[in-house]
Design brief:
CATH topology of the largest domain: Rossmann fold
Strand order of the largest sheet: 18-17-19-20-16-21-22-23-28
Number of domains: 4
Helix content: 25-40%
Strand content: 15-25%
Radius of gyration: 34 Å
Number of helices: 23
Shape: elongated
Length: 691
């Protein structure tokens, strides 16, 4: 672990730590411990002030702040994220709508905080608070920041005391009084991008005796973050406070800029159990860097615009002219298939995504052609993260594919090695910087911290995490992702191949879809063949859709056709590329069996039995010699006319017939021989395998 920064004298460190601890207590966002429905009640006269909509939201942070100021007499102060930045904000906070509008115009995009000087604010960060209380909290004005998190506003009570979050038994709630504040409704959460909304629109009430007794029972002696040494782990409940204190001391003693602060935060985040997300660390660093530093070393909430103007910014280094951009075509790691950057492979559960990724890993680490047809340009290490598989199971798969047992070429992490490794983990970044590998995420969803994979704002973090891995040195990041259930019915498309928000697909340089031929597979009774299709190629020519086989019919032995299937991967240690004729013949054979057993079957019944469309069913049966009058059951039966007993044989043509418009005669064009690509060892040795 990197040594921490040495901060001046112990007295100054303790003083700043205490000041930051108190400030951090004021900055915590509050939350309601359960989702509640909005309750409609009569509000005070607001004289045209914009009320919350039916979802408890406002058109802007200023609208929410003005509603709190006028309807509930809560003084407001502008915030940067969650941090107050005006000098003496406790004294300058106002209920004047004109002043709130002026702040909104002066600081575009700012949030607002409601001051708790004429009442109490009870904030909760966990649903466990309600469980411990074991009763119903009062129905009072409640603002929700996210699911099971929010803050309740109460009228003053002399029996209730201010309780900091780090002075509670479990560190999951606080009770705000005096000049503490909470983020106002209408403001936007800096991490989730969602509004703080009005969950219970009701008048404030005095807390009950039971609520006050509960708060007091959970109060303990205040924990001082400065007492946590650099060698001690930082437990949950003290993480934000401790990291904030450390960054504040660095800012005080060294005037550290944002880059230094975020690096320091990430260093000490290794001690947190569990670690904070990188977005939370960025929020803390941005908050601390906005504080001006007095000559005495004390932090003040100064005019941030003056500070920015006084600090030269090297903005030119962040941009490029056309001539400064890199030359050349898109770098292809696997020729004709895999570009550098971000690639997603989507498919339905259990249909070969992991095996396909291992085949790709084998090609990258051994330089064997991928699937025997795509050449690998250079040998590249692979880091394979698979938190859904045990160590033994994954080892067996790796050995089947003959993945190299070489720490310089292939490293992996399974569930047996511990919890899912966050993509912003320091050890992962160190490995990426040294190896410059391809990183495979199996599956992508296990590394996503979002509560809703369809929410673009919540999924922004994992997209940024992948970008950071690329910047750290990853040649490519490959995510295996689940497809939508409609993939089999609607076929291959970018929309169907990847589940969740479209921002995931938008971030990709390539997207491939995998789809098993379920008719041929027949619930395991037939060969396992998988269609591979590129549904998004960015700036490269994609391969035409092709088919690979994981198992096949065993063929003949001593002239006898063998039943069942055999594993292609066990035999050749990889997939083989096949054509689609096997699938078409299997579908036709199944249809013939169905109509032979029941010639009265309707098209609808055949559709349900095979999953094929009525048009494809008619064409397949027609090619087999079957026909039926239209009209379904009762309108005729399927029949196959018998061939004439002495039907003359026609010679197979040796070429294509071409009509000559001038003399009405025909001549034959010689047939061009197609180049045959040998896919399997049997074909290469002269023996064609039966698929």
């Amino acid at each position: 672990m990197t040594p921490s920064i040495n901060f001046s004298t112990p007295e100054s460190v303790a003083a700043v730590a205490a000041a930051l601890a108190e400030q951090n207590q004021k900055e915590s966002v509050a939350a309601a411990e359960s989702t509640v429905t909005q309750t409609a009640v009569a509000e005070p006269e607001t004289k045209g002030i914009q009320p919350p909509n039916m979802n408890g939201e406002f058109q802007s942070p200023a609208d929410g702040a003005i509603w709190m100021a006028v309807a509930h007499e809560k003084r407001q102060t502008p915030l940067s994220g969650k941090a107050a930045f005006l000098p003496n904000w406790q004294d300058t906070a106002s209920v004047d709508p004109a002043q709130i509008h002026a702040w909104a115009a002066e600081y575009p995009g700012c949030n607002f905080g409601s001051i708790a000087d004429n009442g109490l604010i009870f904030e909760t960060d966990s649903p466990e608070v309600r469980k411990r209380f074991n009763e119903q909290f009062s129905s009072t004005l409640t603002i929700q920041s996210s699911e099971s998190k929010g803050h309740r506003y109460y009228l003053p009570s002399d029996d209730a005391e201010h309780i900091a979050q780090n002075a509670t038994t479990h560190g999951d709630f606080s009770l705000r009084k005096h000049n503490a504040y909470c983020v106002s409704p209408g403001s936007v959460h800096p991490t989730t991008g969602k509004q703080y909304r009005v969950a219970i629109n009701a008048p404030m009430v005095v807390p009950t005796a039971e609520e006050i007794a509960f708060w007091k029972s959970e109060r303990v002696e205040k924990k001082n973050a400065a007492t946590v040494t650099v060698d001690q782990p930082i437990p949950e409940g003290q993480r934000n406070l401790t990291i904030t204190s450390i960054l504040g001391k660095a800012r005080q003693t060294t005037s550290a800029n944002y880059d230094v602060l975020i690096a320091l935060a990430r260093q000490h985040n290794e001690r947190c159990s569990p670690p904070l997300s990188d977005s939370e660390l960025q929020t803390i660093a941005h908050s601390i860097v906005g504080y001006a530093v007095k000559e005495t070393g004390g932090l003040v909430f100064g005019d941030t615009s003056a500070q920015v103007a006084a600090t030269p910014v090297d903005w030119r280094s962040q941009f490029r002219t056309v001539g400064e951009l890199e030359k050349g075509n898109v770098r292809m790691i696997v020729s004709g298939f895999l570009p550098e950057g971000t690639t997603f492979i989507g498919g339905l559960p259990g249909e070969g995504k992991t095996l396909f990724a291992l085949s790709l890993a084998k090609a990258l680490t051994t330089m064997d052609p991928f699937l025997g047809k795509f050449f690998v340009e250079e040998q590249i290490p692979v880091i394979y993260l698979i938190p859904e598989s045990s160590s033994r199971a994954f080892r067996a798969r790796c050995e089947t594919f003959r993945i190299p047992n070489d720490e310089k070429l292939f490293l992996c992490r399974t569930v047996s090695e511990g919890a899912t490794l966050p993509l912003d983990d320091a050890s992962l970044f160190a490995a990426v910087r040294e190896l410059k590998p391809v990183v495979i995420l199996d599956t992508f969803i296990r590394f996503n911290e979002a509560d809703d994979e369809n929410d673009a704002a919540q999924n922004k973090k994992i997209v940024n995490d992948i970008i950071h891995l690329r910047q750290a040195g990853a040649v490519a990041v490959i995510g295996l992702h689940h497809a939508k259930k409609t993939l089999r019915d609607k076929g291959m498309s970018l929309e169907a191949v990847l589940r969740g928000t479209g921002d995931i697909a938008a971030s990709a340089d390539a997207v491939y879809g995998l789809l098993r031929d379920h008719l041929l597979y027949n619930n395991g009774a037939g060969p396992n063949e998988i269609e591979v299709s590129c549904v998004k190629p960015r700036d490269f020519e994609p391969p035409a859709p092709f088919r690979i086989a994981a198992s096949r019919r065993p063929g003949k032995k001593d002239g006898v056709v063998l039943g069942g299937t055999e594993s292609v991967i066990d035999r050749y240690h990889d997939f083989i590329v096949v054509n689609g004729n096997t699938s078409e013949q299997a579908a036709a054979d199944k249809l013939s069996q169905l109509v032979e057993s029941d010639p009265n079957m309707s098209l609808l019944e055949l559709e349900k039995a095979t999953g094929m469309t009525s048009w494809n069913i008619r064409q397949a049966l027609k090619n087999q010699g079957w026909n039926k009058p239209r009209g379904g059951r009762g309108g005729g039966t399927w029949s196959k006319p018998a061939a004439p007993p002495f039907a003359p044989k026609t010679e197979a043509p040796t070429g294509d017939m071409i009509s000559d418009a001038t003399d009405k005669t025909t001549e034959r064009r010689p047939r061009k021989l197609k180049k045959v690509v040998l896919d399997t060892p049997e074909q290469q040795s002269g023996t064609t395998a039966v698929h």
